[in-house]
Amino acid sequence: MPPNVEPSPEDVDNESIDEPTILVATVRAQLALVDSFRRWMHEDLKDEWKKYGDIFSTVSSRLDSYRQWLLDAEQNPTSAVPQPVPWGVRARVQPGSSGLTILVTGTRPNDQFEIFAKDKMEVEYLLSDRYFGCISKMCQGFSQAEKDIATMLQIAQETEQEQSKLSQAPELTTQTHIRLLKEYNDIKDIGQQLIGLVAENKGVRIGTLYESGQYGVETED
């Protein structure tokens, strides 16, 4: 079933859908993306930490907490997991700055960093998908993915609670599966967008990342 298509009850095979399997696959795909993004920040941008270390550090810290959250979810998908905290990472030209000052907001409410570019060309580079534009989009993607995974965890909790009482009625089981599949399709779309950014920064075709299966999405998906 292609992404962005919400399944109808008739499309759902109750015996073939396994909530823990879908959750674990989703979480592992996100872990792979987080690790790839962290490597890019720490390896490809290692020479830039002297200039932008404060910004990179706050993003790196948020990535670490997200990674731990994912590991906890992977180990016990149906346990109580706190609601995710907003990421809030954005990069834009500071209004009224003659177009040469970039304002980057961090992962905490009061995080604001100013970057003074030497010319318009540097501004375009810093805001591009090769630099802070990529960091901002990746963080936005992780933020939405975190919300979707939290919803999937909630669905799994509700399913487990129902199953611990009495067997669910067939129509209730079907509706639960539909909700889970919808969240799964949403987060897979986000993952594909993030993989596109990873491919661009690696300088490779996006198809090579699909073929590797490293990010939990293969060519036929």
From TrEMBL:
Entry keyword set: DNA damage, DNA repair
Pfam families: Swi5
Annotated InterPro entries: DNA-repair_Swi5
BP terms from Gene Ontology: meiotic DNA recombinase assembly involved in reciprocal meiotic recombination; meiotic joint molecule formation
Any single Gene Ontology cellular-component annotation: Swi5-Swi2 complex
Top-level taxon: Eukaryota
Family, similarity comment: Belongs to the SWI5/SAE3 family.
Name of the featured protein: Swi5-domain-containing protein
Native source species: Cercophora scortea
